[in-house]
Write a structure and sequence with these properties.
single chain, 165 residues, alpha/beta, Rossmann fold, 13% strand, disordered N terminus
């Protein structure tokens, strides 16, 4: 049984979504991606998590507005904020996906080698129906910002699953 679990772990693709504080965009991406994994019966093939580049909110739930807007679309944001750990996360995940250019720059700055750098992507690289420069941080904005973030995340998660498959 242990061997089977080990083989499954080798074939499973693991995705880490990263934003600044891990309370809006990356936990939103995690919730959207997890919903798509369940909907498509891909639980044996895909797994995800989220993290933040800054430790501002470690141990906190996702922003209440992100949870509220996510629930309206059927997404349950249950993750607890944590900091990105280069020594652990680059080894554990196949895809390390930043929400904006600064997140990607920060990820590249802590990458240990070329193998780590090859795992880094920007979320909007996976958008299939509309081009976006980045997933904008909705924290200081209004309701429309949270809706836009979810629109982008839904589009990009569909494209990410297609790319991985």
């Amino acid at each position: 049984m242990r061997f089977l679990s080990y083989i499954q772990d080798l074939t499973m693709k693991k995705v880490l979504f990263v934003c600044l504080g891990n309370i809006c965009r990356s936990p939103g991406a995690e919730a959207v991606f997890n919903a798509m994994i369940r909907k498509n019966g891909l639980g044996d093939e895909l797994q995800c998590d989220s993290a933040g580049m800054a430790a501002y909110h470690v141990g906190e739930r996702a922003d209440y507005r992100m949870r509220q807007f996510g629930l309206k679309r059927g997404y349950n944001l249950t993750s607890i904020s944590r900091s990105f750990d280069p020594g652990h996360d680059f080894d554990r995940f196949d895809y390390v996906i930043g929400m904006d250019r600064q997140n990607v720059r920060d990820l590249r700055s802590v990458a240990r080698n070329e193998n780590d750098r090859k795992k880094i992507y920007m979320m909007t690289e996976f958008c299939i129906s509309k081009r976006h420069e980045s997933v904008p941080d909705p924290y200081y904005g209004g309701d429309a910002g949270f809706e836009l973030v979810l629109d982008i995340l839904e589009d990009a998660c569909v494209g990410l699953i297609a790319r991985i498959k």
